[in-house]
Every structure is written in C-alpha cells, then in structure tokens.
C-alpha cells in the first residue's frame, strides 16, 4: 500500500480543494445520506451529511462532527476526539461504496488497515461547529465481475479550507452469503450475552465515562484484557458475531494512553493499525503495549497488539502528544459560568 500523504505535505496545499484542482460550482452535493449507507442506524452516530463525485476516483464527503457525544467526547477539555478521523474515513468509504460504486447495503465490509495523522492544534474545539470536508481518493479498485470487491481510500480532511488530518485505509467487500460461509458456526453466536468485565478507572485511559472503558485490569504490566460491552450503543451499533474493528481501535488508543505518565492529558495524534483476524466475543483477548524505543520512561510512540488464543488479532503503532489543560477564559466582569449559569 502506498504511504498516506503526510500531514505536512497536505498542509502545503491546504487552501486547494482537491488534488485534481478547484471544484466547479456546478458539481452538486447529494444530500440524501442514510444511516444504512454509513452503517450507523442511530443518527447521533452518523456524521456524513452529503457527498459529491469529482471524477471517477475522486469524491468529497461533507461530515458534521458532534460537539457533544456519548462516546466521541472532548479530550483534555479542549480538543475534539481524534478517533472522529478514522470514523469519518470509515463512514465516508462505506457511503461511497454504496452510493457511488453500487455495493448492496446488505454486503459486509472488512477493514484491513486504517491509519491517520493529525496534531492537537488541528483538532482544537475552536471551530467545532464547522462541517469538515473529506477529500477521498479511491484507488486500487478491485472487482469480481461487476461487483466491487475492495479499494483503498485516501482522505485529506479539511475544515474551513485548512487541513485537519490525513488518513487512509483498505476496505474489502463481501456479500452476506460469502461472509456467512467464511464465519461458519461463529455466525450463530450473534447476540449471545458476553460477561462484562470490571474496567480500569476511566481517568487511567483518558475517558470520563466508565461505560466507554474497553480495558480490564491484568496482573501483567503493560497488558490488559479486552473489555467487551455489547450494550454500548456506539461501540456495538448492532448485534454482531465478533468484536467490531472500531472497538479494537479504541482499545489501542486506551492502551497507549494508559501506558503514558499523564493519561488525562494525552492526545493520540497518529495511529496505524493492521487487522490480521477477527476478534471473537467468547474468548479472552489480551491487549499488550510496549514502547517503540526500549527504555523510554515516557514513550511518545507505543506498539500495541491484540492477542487471542496465542494468535495476533491486530497490531498498531500509536503516537501520543501531551497537552496542558487550559482554564476557561474569564469574562471582563468575572467568571463566565457562575452558579446556576448554563453553558
């Protein structure tokens, strides 16, 4: 796979609309976007609101990020959740697969790899009410007959013309019939209750809500057991026969955060995850973190792996950046939010 464009490279042309040149005003947006197309039945979790085709392989997706959300919450009090970036790539890619490449809505998608890059300054909450525009290039398109079998989607994400992040991923498509054949008897486990393990303290993994914690304690340093909360409406948007890839992405983020000295002040700026097999719901999955540079007392880059039945489920490189909290600004006549004053 080609390397994703670096954030610095994207920033050099941040005031252009897209790699193929300015978009004519006559290129209309398609505004009928359904939760079914982005595989998010709850509208609170569906972010794309429009899309348009620039040419055969170049598209734009307009997305509306939530200022407040039950899962994608503020980081360190002043940054948007960086996992909105890979989630926008995921939802945008699926939207284009259905709307532009005619993939049936009942087909299944398998993300082989996903990665993104940003910086704390680019995801500040200052302009959180502004929509983001994802310039998505679809390459390495594979087909089985007339059906889309897979493609690589590279994304440059902008807000108000300025680069927010870059990301890319490899998406494979299989019919529901083929998926059921691949998964075999595992499909019968769909909806089966999974015991909820006790979680780490939310502040240890950079969260504020205990329901969003996906790591359980382990006696081994740098190792945790995956905590599967099938009742969480965002992490498990539907009954499934395996752990969704997004849960594993969050596990890697939480592991890297917990591995740092100051988990409450860490922003995950870069992730590069490769999925190697399905994570099963009924088997313990261990999340292990190691510093990229051995002996580093406070590593900025961490290697995280998921291990189940002595086999690797995923591997991920995670980079974190520290950020000092900032007190809310004061109004000229005193505190902006006093007792009894709504935000």
Automatic annotation (TrEMBL):
Domain A-factor biosynthesis hotdog: 38-171, 204-313
Chain segments carrying region Disordered: 322-343
Matches recorded under InterPro entries: AfsA-like (IPR047757), AfsA_hotdog_dom (IPR005509), HotDog_dom_sf (IPR029069)
Domain of life of the organism encoding this protein: Bacteria
Pfam families per the UniProt record, alphabetical: AfsA (PF03756)
Protein name: ScbA/BarX family gamma-butyrolactone biosynthesis protein
Taxonomic lineage: Bacteria, Bacillati, Actinomycetota, Actinomycetes, Kitasatosporales
